[in-house]
Q: What sequence folds into this?
């Protein structure tokens, strides 16, 4: 399939040989981890297709949009408000950060002990293998954690159209005022890029599109309450990952179709794993495509994942923008309110996250929590110990995992996860 | 019915056969480069009805011999509870891993911690350090106990510790004092792990490194309580697997 | 081994340091409050204006780290772990004396550590902007300082007016001027004060509660240094390479790099860090005091700021002013902000001065001393 896109990739400036290698590895990983699963919902066929065309057809679509005068904006974080981008008739895409690439080159400009996610973003840029990044008219970085904040200073030399958004670190009135000012500044930047003036009507439409997308993934999440779970955690994670790439309207329809199918599965008590399989809530750092390592280990060690408290998951998608009135200012307020609730560990203190983990644990009838910390990610790793302690004080079994994108520790992780399953279902 | 348990570790393989809770026989061999061939040889001529595998090679064994498996964490929990009823905390230091396990009053695993991917604080670490200092592994602990001085070693990473040890040797420091310092660094790491799961007694120390007398002494000092060691600390995992096999419903 | 001659003014420093805890205890007995500070960004003037005593807190020794690691991840910088360990073990008398602690949202590690520290002692965290741009960041920081002022008023019962703030600014300005004058002594060649002497003085002075004592002492030291009281005039000192240490703060217990540089026959003549030259600014005494504090403190060129242009300006001025021949950029392990910025610092030095930096990433432990020595010696040979 890749031949038809070669010229497009070449035009984007990708390193074709390296890119072929990447696609081959991605395809093989997908085959081993996804297509080998049993009892998958038929609707997942759509996501199989999306993944198989993630650097192909989807990029072609973006190029067509660009040819028609629309803009593409790339982002690394859920704090970048898609509503504003949509209101300017532009498309927001998540950028590649889920696999090690060109690590040696990366470590010439970034410290070795930087988290895999940041290194991956640099690796895809240096290796010239991320068509999303190369097709973006504007790339948005954000001052979240130390690692990202400082890395953007270096990335700016590699990505001239990098725009950095500042973010608060505390949920005070001042903090809210800061994010509000930054969202207005972002709106102006998007208007300037696209030449579109964002009025109330356009903003309302943007809000509606993104809200619908969130509603669809919420619907899918809630169906996972059932025992047996009607869908594997891997497949649900994929749906959450594709959230960042796909056309939002088409995505919404596809997720809703899967949900219809899952509802009938639930009636028939069908699922990929038998009833009574230990149910795991994942909590912690985000997992971008193709970072499927830990979910794969969990679901091949006798567990099923029933929820993700993560930015690629419920932390990122929960809460809708409320119907905020009829003026641009009112609608912007509503957007700010929605995003200011995101309970990322960069905030101090961050009690909402712990409350949300407990809420999800109950909501999805989980048996235990696995906390996933990406090595060197200080905000989440620093929270992992207090979170573990609080959960265990409430009788919720918790396993803390710290790892990266490498596969060397897979065997060791499997032992830990299996032992955790034995604790849950002795 | 005779139940066997096999513990395929990174350094050694142990086999235990039980009947109705009584240990009928035990065997041990090196893991070598072909663990399944070694395991097959160990099983040769042994008489049992069912077998369960544990240890890092359990999944290989599952494929090769079509046997059920259990993690070494649960196996150690079971084995220790059988040998020392009422034990609440286990430290297991093996060739490549170290683990701290908290048991509830029923002897079931409540919580555990495991070393991260590096060899710091494991049997492998002690083995490499013994070699660097020119000691036999078997005498490493007893020689360390003869040290007059206590020498602080900071590094827990095998690579860094090796260069730290080399520079101490070059400075003319006493080998035994360095050895004691190295043991202490492993104990510090282990105690940190134990404290994160529980430090409720009785505490049992198992796994190959439990045979090292210096480790036990330092652990007792650091934890300020007696540390119990099963008679054959390396057999605990295999025994646990054998006992779990006998409890398994058919 | 040559016998070190006692230096009278260093003995005096020791005496004053020994009296310091007594001074604080007495002041507390008189009802004054003690406020512990972890970072250069929070203006101590606001505590002084409330008649409270600002104190620095311990965090430069290796011993408490083991205890800290029972609660904190291992992958945090030694400064954070040491600070937390000192607090938990109650081995830092300044922490014990403190009525409350002031922290800032500087780096991820510190801000998350403060959440846990708050369980041991009330810790007020000020939200520091992540950049220094005037339009948004300054009013933001000004608001935080207003909140800080109210916190101090509530803590002490003293109403902080302009007059009190101005007086505090003037006092702290004098102290910073004295620190600057002391460090500037080493602009001379050869440097009259060794790097480890300077480090010892700066570390100990930072803990002194009685600012008048510390100002007088530092002023005396400047005179003594010019009379070559710190190190004998030596024909060989002129050939010692002049090194600037930049990056993370250093103190007693975390001084191994300075020691190794000296053992290798070079001098650390300047410290571009927050235990050194970053603490020498002057706050405008004529402007509205809170405005002046907000604007001056926000300019502190720490790597938590993005971008952090001020650090490069300061480096440039210091490398020229101190006749620096080599720059060692020190990063404590797991300090992301200085670690990432090291790349830019090296690029800057190569472009502006034609020599690279030596970037070292280490912790408080002594385990890598020999490796560091090799790298430092090789760097010195290269210059």
A:
């Amino acid at each position: 399939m890749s031949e038809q896109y070669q010229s497009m990739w070449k035009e984007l400036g990708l390193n074709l040989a390296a890119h072929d290698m990447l696609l081959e590895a991605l395809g093989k990983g997908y085959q081993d981890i996804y297509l080998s699963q049993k009892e998958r919902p038929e609707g997942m066929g759509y996501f199989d297709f999306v993944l198989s065309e993630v650097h192909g057809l989807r990029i072609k679509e973006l190029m067509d949009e660009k040819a028609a005068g629309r803009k593409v904006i790339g982002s690394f974080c859920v704090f970048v408000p898609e509503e504003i981008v949509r209101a300017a008739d532009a498309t927001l895409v998540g950028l590649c950060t889920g696999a090690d690439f060109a690590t040696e080159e990366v470590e010439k400009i970034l410290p070795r002990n930087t988290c895999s996610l940041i290194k991956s973003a640099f690796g895809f840029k240096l290796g010239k293998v991320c068509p999303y990044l190369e097709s973006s008219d504007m790339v948005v970085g954000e001052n979240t954690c130390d690692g990202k904040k400082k890395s953007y200073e270096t990335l700016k030399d590699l990505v001239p159209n990098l725009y950095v958004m500042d973010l608060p670190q505390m949920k005070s009135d001042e903090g809210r005022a800061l994010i509000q000012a930054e969202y207005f500044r972002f709106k102006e930047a998007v208007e300037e890029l696209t030449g579109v003036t964002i009025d109330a009507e356009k903003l309302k439409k943007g809000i509606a599109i993104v809200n619908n997308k969130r509603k669809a993934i919420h619907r899918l999440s809630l169906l996972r309450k059932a025992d047996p779970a009607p869908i594997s955690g891997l497949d649900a994670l994929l749906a959450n990952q594709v959230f960042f790439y796909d056309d939002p309207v088409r995505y919404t329809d596809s997720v809703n179709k899967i949900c219809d199918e899952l509802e009938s599965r639930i009636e028939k008590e069908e699922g990929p794993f038998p009833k009574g399989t230990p149910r795991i809530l994942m909590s912690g750092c985000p997992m971008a495509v193709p970072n499927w390592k830990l979910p794969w280990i969990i679901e091949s060690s006798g567990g099923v994942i029933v929820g993700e408290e993560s930015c690629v998951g419920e932390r990122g998608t929960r809460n809708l923008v409320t119907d905020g009135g009829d003026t641009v200012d009112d609608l912007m307020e509503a957007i700010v309110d929605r995003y200011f609730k995101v309970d990322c560990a960069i905030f101090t203190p961050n009690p909402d996250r712990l409350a949300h983990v407990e809420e999800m644990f109950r909501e999805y009838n989980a048996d235990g929590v696995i906390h996933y910390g990406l090595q060197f990610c200080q905000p989440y790793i620093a929270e992992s110990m207090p979170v573990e302690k609080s959960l265990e004080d409430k009788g919720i079994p918790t396993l803390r995992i710290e790892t990266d994108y490498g596969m060397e520790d897979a065997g060791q992780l499997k032992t830990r996860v299996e032992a955790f399953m034995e604790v849950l279902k002795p | 019915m005779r139940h066997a348990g096999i513990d395929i570790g990174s350094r050694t393989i142990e086999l235990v056969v039980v009947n109705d809770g009584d240990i009928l026989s035990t065997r041990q061999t090196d893991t070598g480069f072909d663990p399944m061939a070694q395991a097959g040889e160990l099983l040769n001529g042994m008489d049992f009805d069912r077998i369960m595998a544990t240890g890092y090679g359990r999944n290989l064994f599952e494929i090769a011999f079509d046997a059920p498996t259990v993690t070494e964490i649960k196996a150690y929990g079971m084995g220790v509870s059988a040998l020392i009823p009422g034990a609440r905390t286990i430290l297991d230091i093996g060739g490549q891993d170290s683990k701290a396990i908290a048991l509830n009053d029923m002897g079931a695993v409540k919580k555990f911690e495991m070393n991260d991917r590096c060899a710091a604080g494991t049997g492998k670490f002690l083995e490499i350090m013994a070699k660097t200092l020119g000691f036999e592994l078997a005498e490493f602990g007893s020689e360390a106990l003869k040290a007059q001085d206590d020498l602080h070693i900071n590094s827990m990473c095998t690579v860094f510790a090796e260069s730290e040890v080399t520079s101490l040797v070059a400075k003319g420091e006493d080998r035994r004092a360095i050895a004691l310092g190295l043991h202490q660094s492993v104990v510090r790491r282990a105690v940190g792990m134990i404290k994160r799961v529980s430090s409720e007694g009785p505490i049992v120390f198992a796994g190959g490194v439990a045979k090292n007398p210096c480790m036990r002494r330092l652990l007792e000092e650091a934890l300020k309580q007696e540390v119990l060691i099963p008679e054959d600390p390396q057999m605990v995992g295999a025994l646990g697997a054998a006992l779990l096999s006998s409890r398994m419903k058919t | 081994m040559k016998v070190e001659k006692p230096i009278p003014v260093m003995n005096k420093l020791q005496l004053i340091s020994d009296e310091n805890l007594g001074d604080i205890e007495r002041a507390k007995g008189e009802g004054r409050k003690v406020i512990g500070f972890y970072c250069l960004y929070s203006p101590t003037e606001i505590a002084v204006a409330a008649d409270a005593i600002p104190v620095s807190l311990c965090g430069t020794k290796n011993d408490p780290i083991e205890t800290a690691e029972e609660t904190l991840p291992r992958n945090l910088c030694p400064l954070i772990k040491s600070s937390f360990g000192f607090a938990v073990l109650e081995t830092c008398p300044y922490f014990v004396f403190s009525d409350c602690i002031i922290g800032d949202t500087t780096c991820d590690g510190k801000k998350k550590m403060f959440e846990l520290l708050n369980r041991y002692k009330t810790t007020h965290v000020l939200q520091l902007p992540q950049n220094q741009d005037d339009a948004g960041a300054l009013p933001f920081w000004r608001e935080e300082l207003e909140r800080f002022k109210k916190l101090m008023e509530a803590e002490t019962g003293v109403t902080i007016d302009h007059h009190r703030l101005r007086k505090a600014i003037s006092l702290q300005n004098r102290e910073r001027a004295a620190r600057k004058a002391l460090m500037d002594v080493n602009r001379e060649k050869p440097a009259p004060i060794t790097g480890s002497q300077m480090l010892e003085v700066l570390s100990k002075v930072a803990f002194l509660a009685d600012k008048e004592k510390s100002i007088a002492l530092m002023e005396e030291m400047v005179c003594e240094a010019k009379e070559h009281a710190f190190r004998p005039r030596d024909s060989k000192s002129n050939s010692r390479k002049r090194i600037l240490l930049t990056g993370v703060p250093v103190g007693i217990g975390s001084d191994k790099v300075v020691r190794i540089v000296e053992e290798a026959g070079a001098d650390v003549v300047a410290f571009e860090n927050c235990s050194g030259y970053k603490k020498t600014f002057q706050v405008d005494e004529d402007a509205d005091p809170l405005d002046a504090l907000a604007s001056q403190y926000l300019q502190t060129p720490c790597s938590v700021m993005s971008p952090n242009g001020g650090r490069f300006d300061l480096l440039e001025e210091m490398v020229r002013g101190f006749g620096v021949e080599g720059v060692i950029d020190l990063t404590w392990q797991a300090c992301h902000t200085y670690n990432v910025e090291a790349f830019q610092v090296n690029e800057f030095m190569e472009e502006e001065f034609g020599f690279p930096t030596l970037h070292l990433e280490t912790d408080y432990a002594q385990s890598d001393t020999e490796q560091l020595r090799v790298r430092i010696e090789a760097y010195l040979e290269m210059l």
Q: What stands out?
A: Chain C touches chain B through eleven residues (CB under 8 Å). The two ends of chain C are 28 Å apart (CA to CA). Chain C is about 50% helix and 10% strand.
